[in-house]
Every structure is written in C-alpha cells, then in structure tokens.
Amino acid sequence: MLAATVATATVAADQLSKYFVRRSAADLPLDLLPHVSLELSHNSGISFGRLTGAGWLLVGVVVAVIVVLIYALVRCSPRYAVALALIIGGAVGNLVDRIRFGSVVDFVSIGAWPTFNVADAAIAVGAVTIVVRLLFSERGQDPDACLSGRAD
User: Fold this and answer.
1) Distance between CA atoms of 21 and 105, rounded to whole angstroms?
2) Residues 119, 120, 124, 125: what is their CA dihedral angle, to the nearest 10 degrees?
3) N or C: which end of the chain has fewer CB within 10 A?
C-alpha cells in the first residue's frame, strides 16, 4: 500500500509540475538561484539524450522495465519498497510524456548538468537509495534477495 501511494504521488507530482511548466513556457527561462533555472526542453531519448529518436521502441523498453520493477517490488524485502516505488513512479511519469508528446518534458536546469524533471529526480533518489542499502546492508543479509525470491 505504501509503495502504491509513493508511486502514485510521484507520478502526480511529476505530471503536475510539467503541466505548470508547459503553461508557463512563455515566461521561461526563469532564473531561481545562481546556476539554477527553469527552462522548458524536450528529450526524445533516454538519460542525457541517448537514443534520441528511438520513439516507440523506447516506450516498449520502458514498459518492460516497469514490469520488471513491479515484479521486484513484489518479491523484494519491504526495505526496498519506497525506493522501488520512486523509480516506478518516475518511469511511469516519463512514460506518460513519451506517449502523449513523443518526448519527455524536462525543465530543471542546474549549471552544466542536463535538464531534468521530477520523475528523473525520483528515479535517481530511488536508485541511490537502493545502492546505499546494498552497500551498507548488515552481514548475513542476501543482497540478491529480490532476484532469488528470498526476501530478508
């Protein structure tokens, strides 16, 4: 239940933020802080613009990844639930854009870093959380519990 709430809230926050940015496109770019601004951009590829123009192939790949992540969520320890839900919610948020617009709406610009969105941030936070949990898991815990079905 918690995972479903986190994933749903992530999709909602992502889509709402993109809606408001698209509505405000005429007022962008907007400087918020030094080296931090809101500027509308579209990414038809994946991370950092790779595979630009892959279109529906990317939609299929993203759907497959979401299915695998949901499987992992069901099979993994509850310790990973929120992190996996953030990744799932982020993936669904960007998938909605791909289906609706043919590209992902990005709008947060920080220095030389590629422009990103709420979904991207959720995916990054979820992934880092999983890596940190795996790196600092107690001895005797099975880091492969999600893959083997032996949840700790």
Assistant:
1) 9
2) -30
3) N
Other Cβ atoms less than 10 A from the Cβ of 18: the count is: 24
**Alpha carbon 130 to its chain's center:** 14
Q: Residue 109: which H helix or E strand, with range?
A: strand 104-110
Q: What is the DSSP letter of 116?
A: B
Residue ranges in the chain modelled with pLDDT below 50: 151-152
What pLDDT does 101 receive?
92
Are 41 and 115 in contact by the 8 Å Cβ rule? The answer is yes
Look at residue 145 in the predicted model and tell me its pLDDT: 58
Active site positions, annotated: 106, 120
Rounded Cα gap, residues 19 and 132, in angstroms: 33
Q: Give the number of other CB atoms < 10 A from CB of residue 26.
A: 6
Q: Long-range contacts of range 104-108, CB-CB < 8 Å, 24 or more positions apart?
A: 104/42, 104/43, 104/44, 105/18, 105/21, 105/22, 105/40, 105/41, 105/42, 106/40, 106/41, 106/42, 106/43, 107/17, 107/18, 107/21, 107/28, 107/38, 107/39, 107/40, 107/41, 108/36, 108/38
Query: How many whole angstroms separate alpha carbon 150 and alpha carbon 76?
Result: 8
